[in-house]
Write a structure and sequence with these properties.
Strand order of the largest sheet of chain B: 1-11-10-4-9-8-7
Largest sheet of chain A: 2 strands, antiparallel
Distance between the termini of chain B: 28 Å
Order of helices and strands of chain B: EEEEHEEHEHHHHEHEHEEHH
CATH superfamily of chain B: P-loop containing nucleotide triphosphate hydrolases
Radius of gyration of chain A: 20 Å
Strand order of the largest sheet of chain A: 1-2
Radius of gyration of chain B: 18 Å
Structural class of chain B: alpha/beta
Mean pLDDT of chain B: 92
Helix content of chain A: 55-70%
Low-confidence stretches of chain A: none
CATH architecture of chain A: Orthogonal Bundle
Strand content of chain A: 5-15%
Strand content of chain B: 25-35%
Oligomer: heterodimer
CATH topology of chain B: Rossmann fold
CATH class of chain B: Alpha Beta
Number of helices of chain A: 11
Number of strands of chain B: 11
CATH topology of chain A: ABC transporter involved in vitamin B12 uptake, BtuC
Shape of chain B: globular
Chain lengths: ~325, ~250
């Protein structure tokens, strides 16, 4: 029983992170009908931005409350900017081209980021006053992510039967907070209405006076920022960061989005949580080597029974 | 190609609003419009009739900025609006209720209507217009919390018109409002259209049903393979032997 509870907690903590990344896939798919395969790699870049900020802050400052806030802010803003540029210069010129073209471009950006970040490139820029600004790509090997949240046991039940760590709680709360903000934004604001209109039909949305290009760009920025937040939570959990983490986490989150029904916002959250729980139970009760096989097997199963995903609807058109 | 347009009767004079000159639209190798010229005056209802594929919908789309014309000039009021994007046309007083109604089935009726007023910030006035719309189409008030996708075809058409009116347009472009609707529903919609026009909104109407359209319109244009071939007051076109033979099945 205690074991079950422990797995439930671990699964939910992992699941919320998947859910945040899955939300990005689903929002971009919603407005553009594009599977943004570079999404996981944008997340990876965000983690490195957070990593660089943490190193820059130093050991003392990085784990203070404002330090953590700054790390998240830097990563999320940086990623929003990256998302903006990717949409503006890679996807927008292909908007009216066949969808396959954009999809292949997305895969190209994914590889460019994940393998580009493995290059050994760097330069030093002398600054006035004897300082030096050094910029460098991180290189191929994984690095330890600094402990910006020092792991402590937050709650212990029984004789260490169930242990809840502080980072699990914090991560869960941050993820939940971001999801609530998103939910509010999409379903309660003027921008959200515009986004949902664009997602149905961007040509008709423009007839309402909605600047569709701007809505699409903002959606990209939003989904990239969420990915950066999720990536940092993942890095805190995993205590490491590597240029290939985006491919792996991104693929899992994509699975979560498809399980929930891609394009559906609540579906992405449920898909993420379900996937997190399924993986945790496989690791806990079977063997960790089976984790990925079961995750993808579960995807196949869901698609066999409900091809549109758990929350997806196969659109019926009314004439 | 204006010399080929057969013009019947006298046009009642309205102050100018929309002027389209030599409009051409190209879909790849296919030329959908081959130089369409037409006018809509302030307070006028103008009908575009013609067979399937004559270019009626393409004309509306080019006027509202959904399509980029390859040649020609469009002016609204005194302003050249050729080549503007669709979302830039709305603040100038253009509203387009597109073919197939174009409602957002994934949003509620209320949200659809609010999108019609997307660019307006005069909250109190929007509320007034919302109520006006609910007087025109009481059924929308009953259903305002429902998803728009659950409405019947006629209700969707009403929603499309009501939504377009919420931007407070000077000119309403209306594409096939009678499509797929029962005769009584069509009648309701056309009656409302007269009220809308009486309130000062000009209408450019595309209709398959020539009889209906020409009865409602002050003036009409007949389109054939991307060109205007005939023009005249609605009544005059209805009486013309050619129109009766070609479009009224007599």
């Amino acid at each position: 029983m205690a074991q079950l509870l422990q797995h439930l907690i671990n699964g939910l903590a992992a699941g919320t992170i998947y859910a945040l990344v899955a939300l990005g896939y689903t929002m971009v798919y919603g407005v553009l009908k594009l599977i943004n395969f570079a999404h996981g790699d944008v997340m990876m870049v965000g983690v490195y931005m957070g990593y660089a900020t943490a190193i820059g802050l130093g050991r003392q400052a990085q784990s203070s409350l404002w330090g953590v806030a700054l790390i998240f802010a830097a990563a999320m803003l940086g990623c929003a900017l990256l998302g903006f540029f990717i949409e503006r210069f890679a996807y927008r010129p292909l908007r009216e081209k066949p969808r396959l073209t954009a999809l292949i471009t997305a895969i190209g950006i994914s590889f460019a980021l994940s393998y580009g970040f493995q290059l050994d490139l760097g330069f030093k820029l002398p600054l006035p006053g004897g300082y030096e600004l050094s910029l460098a790509l991180p290189g191929a090997s994984p690095r330890a992510f600094p402990e910006i949240i020092r792991p402590t046991e937050w709650l212990i039940i029984g004789d260490r039967d169930v242990v809840i760590w502080n980072w699990q709680v914090i991560s869960f709360l941050i993820a939940l907070g971001l999801m609530l903000v998103l939910q509010y934004l999409v379903y309660r604001t003027r921008f959200g209405r515009a986004m949902r209109a664009v997602s149905w039909d961007h040509r008709v949305a423009a007839l309402m006076g909605i600047p569709t290009d701007r809505v699409i760009a903002l959606t990209f920025m939003l989904s990239s920022a969420l990915a950066a937040g999720a990536g940092l939570l993942y890095a805190i959990k995993d205590t490491s960061v590597s240029p290939l983490m985006g491919l792996y986490v991104g693929l899992k989150a994509f699975v979560a989005a498809v399980i929930g029904g891609i394009g559906n916002v609540p579906g992405a959250v449920v898909g993420g949580l379900v996937l997190g729980l399924v993986e945790e139970f496989v690791v806990g009760y079977a063997a960790s080597t089976w984790r990925d096989a079961v995750a993808f097997g579960f995807l196949i199963l869901v698609l066999l029974v409900k091809p549109g995903g758990l929350f997806g609807r196969v659109a019926a058109e009314k004439v | 190609m204006s010399e080929q347009v057969k013009t019947l009767g006298e046009r009642r004079s309205f102050p100018g609003l929309l002027t389209v000159e030599g409009l051409k639209v190209q879909y790849g190798a296919i030329q959908a419009l081959r130089g369409v010229s037409l006018q809509v005056g302030q307070g006028e209802v103008v009908a575009l009739i013609g067979a399937n594929g004559a270019g009626k919908t393409s004309t509306l789309r080019a006027v509202s900025g959904m399509l980029k014309p390859s040649a020609g000039r469009i002016t609204l009021g005194s302003r050249d609006i050729t080549g503007l994007k669709a979302h830039q046309m709305v603040p100038l007083g253009m509203a387009h209720a597109p073919e197939g109604r174009g409602i957002f089935p994934n949003l509620t009726v209320q949200e659809n209507l609010e999108l019609g007023a997307y660019l307006r910030s005069d909250t109190a006035e929007i509320q007034v217009d919302m109520e006006k719309n609910f007087t025109l189409f009481p059924v929308l008030k009953e259903r305002r919390r429902q998803m728009a996708g659950t409405l019947s075809g006629g209700e969707q058409q009403m929603l499309a018109i009501a939504r377009a009116l919420l931007s407070r347009p000077k000119l309403l472009l209306l594409d096939e409002p009678s499509l797929g609707l029962a005769p009584q529903v069509t009648e309701t919609i056309f009656r409302t259209l007269r009220d809308v026009n009486a309130a000062g909104v000009s209408v450019l109407l595309v209709e398959q049903n020539a009889h209906l359209a020409l009865n409602a319109a002050h003036y009409g244009y007949v389109l054939e393979t991307g060109e205007v071939v005939m023009a005249g007051p609605g009544k005059a076109l209805l009486d013309s032997a050619e129109v009766r033979r070609a479009y009224l099945g007599e």
